[in-house]
Predict the 3D structure of the following.
Amino acid sequence: MNQPMNQRGLFLTLEGPEGSGKSTQLRMLAQRLRAAGHDVLETAEPGGTPIGLQIRRVLLDAKNQELSPTAELLLMFAARAQNIDQWILPALAAGRVVVCDRFTDSTLVYQGAARGLGAEMVYDIDRIACRGLVPDLTLLIDVDIETGLARAHRRNQRTREVETRIDEQSLEFHKKVRDAYRHLADDEPKRVKLIDGNRPEAAVAADVWTAVEPLLAK
């Protein structure tokens, strides 16, 4: 992937399979960063901006099973490009800490690997949509497939969630997602920190902070 842009702020992303707890960890991290005096922007993909949220509804609505892998890929990057231009780059330029729930790594894993579109296609579109923007640190919350999907299903039942199209993919799909994430951590150990998400939230949060704290000192 391209080198990070010159930026005064800090760009952190959280990644993980379905039910990994990354969204909870993102909120906990943002709270701790603010408590430490940092100006934080929380955002998510697909989504983030009002336009991105409209795209998200198309991508994740369980009714849209006919959505093709290529269309899915392009919509993911459309939401991301809007998020980058509208929120992420201005926040980084202002010296803020940006904490994002998913980024291009998710697209590499879900669309590139699990959908079979390949990394080359993902990187080609990334060059257009992201223009060299790469996270300073990616926190990959890993969880075994059965635990993660059970968590996701409980959450969906509790909230009556309709954005379940990805959750409802086959077990083989979710296995490909997890395997691809673990390969990514092996390939980029300096940027991508693998964290065991099968443990209690507090233990996971402690490891997240241990990974982030050295960057704050810089």
